[in-house]
Known about the structure:
The chain is 31% helix and 22% strand. By secondary structure, the protein is of the alpha+beta class. The protein has three domains: 2-43 and 184-268 and 486-508, 3-Layer(aba) Sandwich (D-Maltodextrin-Binding Protein, domain 2), CATH 3.40.190.10; 65-163, Dipeptide-binding Protein, Domain 1 (Dipeptide-binding Protein, domain 1), CATH 3.90.76; 271-482, Roll (Dipeptide-binding Protein, domain 3), CATH 3.10.105.10. The strands form four sheets. Strands 8-9-10-1-11-16-12-15-13-14 form a ten-stranded mixed sheet, with helices on both faces. It has a four-stranded antiparallel sheet with strand order 4-5-7-6, with helices on one face. The longest helix has 18 residues, at 455-472. The chain starts with a helix and ends with a strand. Residues 1-22 have low confidence and may be disordered.
Amino acid sequence: MLRTTVALTALCTALSGALPDAAEAGRQDDTLRVALAEEILNLDYNYTTKREYIIMAELTDATLFELDPETQEFGAAVATDWNWVDDTTLDVTLREGVTFHDGSELTAADVAYTYNWIVSEESEAQAKGTIERWLDNVEVTGDLSLRFHLKSVYPLVLRDMAQRVKLRPEGAYEADDGSIDESAMASDLIGAGPYKVVAFEPGQEVVLERFEDYWGERPAIENVVVRNLPDIGTQQAELMSGGVDWMFKVPLDVAESLGNTPQATHLSGPDLRVGFLVLDAAGYTDEEGPLTNVKVRQAVNHALNREEMSKFLIGGSSEPIHTPCHPAQFGCTEDIPAYPYDPEKARALLDEAGYGDGFRMDLWAYRDKPAAEAIAADLEAVGIDVNLRYVKLASLNQARAQQEIPAYFGTWGSGGTADTAAIARVHFSSESDRNLSGDGELTETVLAAEKTADPEERKRLYEEALTTIAEQAYWAPLFSYSQNYLVNPELDFPLSPDGLPRLDESSWK
């Protein structure tokens, strides 16, 4: 760490003296240059999932509704009005004059086609897993009106419409000969968002231009160039020389060091991502293993110093948590049992459980290695012999699917959705291999919360589920994340409370 800081200091000193006008580069040609470590290979968010693709979709795409990140309320976007005919029938009226990037006017037929395609048997869209849970079909009732027929009561319909499905022209996934072409929008995207794609080199660069016929408020900056720069050192050098105006997922030490130079500003904002330890309470890896004992799982919880991990390893606006969800999410009550850091209590619980001499445990992790190492060290300190298996995410996913993982350090960002449903279903449904609790009643409670439109009943059900998770110590919740950015000092980049970067809201100072 010291060597990294020294190197950064030397780089900052050299560049700050040599490049006094670097911060003006973006303003001069009205082009916001963005650095992403993750390769952009597919422009169609209906077929992708990662945060980088969400950032791109915010620039290029339109949805029926919009989410206000301040209030978490849904409002009009392409849809201007909506009415629940009954619990499973929703009528939607569209805005007049919405135009796709190819110049065609958006109609009800386009919206119906998009949704019906995603839930069709032929579709392999990533959005399908979210939408097919609740959508039966969409019926066109007029040039600018539709009727959505739901399979069952589902309280998160507007959320999914606002965040998951990007609207496409009718026939977008059909080739000229009438055959299916699921990759039709991957390189030649036809969206209806504030920017249109004018050039795309997969894995290298995306060039966007402000769409002057955009139906909403037009962005202040005319052009956006998204560059794929996997190496963070290259990103740093480009930022300091004026070749990049914005970078995120910046390690805290790097952000603080470069943020002290005239060429960069360090911004730190909230993020709905949380970190946690998942424990094999069900005994998938060992039917009579230590982790099947609730006292052992409680001991693991008491052994972890969440406060120090949050403060020194994550930093910024990160906070220690004791909930298996982000406290800002709807339904994420904090009025549940907590396990304060207490190594002596952890040792006593291990002794009561018959593991006074400790036991050996494989701990899997795929990101934030310093945090994974801190978890291992805390567990070692109370007598648990930890074998830290730090692997690629694909390897962890494969091992988890085969029920070979007794414990893993995971994170979840809920797709920027401030609702406990966005984390609970994925991690505590019996359909998910992420659920290591083996608790069928817990699954029923979690899913029941998605089958009522009554907000108070949803809160009650989530409180019941979260209390069970805490009492049984199925997880060891750790901390919330903080998002660190480095930006051109001349760039005004507003931070959203849900942690999603909205680059279209940027402007020059």
